[in-house]
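Incident review: delayed structure delivery

Summary: a single-chain prediction request sat in the queue longer than the usual turnaround. Root cause was a stuck worker, restarted by the on-call engineer. No data loss occurred. The affected request and its eventual output are reproduced below so the record is complete for anyone auditing the incident later.

Affected input:
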Amino acid sequence: MNVQKEIDRLIAQRAAEWFEIYRTGDVEKYPAAMAWLSESPRHMAEFLEIARRYSATRQILQGDPFDIETLLKNARPGVRPLRESAASAPEPRPRATRSVSWRWAAGLAAAALVVVTFGVWKGVDSFSSRQQYATRVGEQRIVPLSDGSVVTLNTDSRIDVRMGKHQRDIALYGEAIFKVAHENARPFLVHTGHTTVRAVGTQFNVYGRPDGSTTVAVLEGKVQVSAAAEGHDAPGAGHSAFERLEISASMALAAGEVARVERSGVIRRDENVDVESAVAWRQRRLVFDRTPLEEIVPEFNRYGRNLRLRLVDVPASAYHYTGNFDADDPRSLALLLSEERGLEVEERDGEIAIHGVASP
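Output delivered after worker restart:
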C-alpha cells in the first residue's frame, strides 16, 4: 500500500470526524478538535474542504479558504481575528517561510469561522455565546449568565446555554431556578425532555425528572409551558434538546402555580404542591406530600455522596409519606422506615438497603 495515500486517507477521515463534532455541537470535544486543526496546515485544509461542501458554511468559505482578508471581511461583528500563536508568529526567516506561517494563521481563522457558523441552530437564530455549567452529586451552584439572568443549579444538574440575537435558549438536565433578566424582544426558553418553558422576565423552578416528566413552579411573573407531541424521544435519544418539536399542549402559569408535564405530553396543574415546597431544595430540604417511596429514594440519592439508599423487593406504590426532610440526612428516612411493618432496613458499606418483607 502507498504510505502517503494511507496517510491522506486517515487525515481526511479524521477531519470528517472533527467536522461532525462541530456540526452536532459536541462542545466538550471542541478543544481537542481545535488542537488537531492547529497541528498542521494539511489538517485544516482537509477540514475546510469538508466544511465548504456543507450548506451552512459554503457561503463563508466560497473563496480561497486561506484568504485571510476575505475570511475576516465575511466574519460577523464580534468575531475577532485569531492572534498568531507561537508556531505562527513572524520571525526573521526567509520570505517563503513567513508566507506559509501567514497562511497557517489564515487557516486557523477559517476554522474559527466554521465554529462560529455552527452557532446557527436549525437556521433559526445565530448564537453568539454558548456555555455549559454543571453540578456534582450533593453540590449546588449559582451561575450568572451573560444577559444578566441568574441560574441556581441544584445537585447533579447541567445546563447548556445558547445566547442568540432573537432568543435565549437553555437545555436543562436536572433542576434549576431561573431568575430571568427582562427582555421583551428576546424571550428566555428552558428545554427539558418534552417540555419548553417560555419567559421574558420572571423567576421559576424547572425540574426535569429521571422518569421523563417535568415539574414547573413559578415564583414571580408568568411563564408559558409547552409540551411536545406524544411519541418524541427525550434528548440524548435521537434529537437535540434545542430542536423545535411539535407542540401537543400548552398552559400559562402565574406566580404561585405549579404544573407537571408527563412524558405523554399532558400538562396538569398540581394543586397539592405549593411553590415554597417545590424550591425547598435551596435550603437543602426535601418536602413530600403523600409521595410514594420509590420517588422519595431517588430524591435523597441526588444529594448523598457517601451514603445511598436502595430499595429491594419493595412493591410499587405500597408506601406513601408526607414530611419535611434534611436532604443530607438519609438516615432520618431510614429511621422512619425501620418502624414500618413490612420493611427491613440494613446499613452496610456506604449503603442503606430497604427490603420488602412478605407478611407471615
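Verification: The radius of gyration is 26 Å.
Action items: add queue-age alerting; document worker restart procedure.
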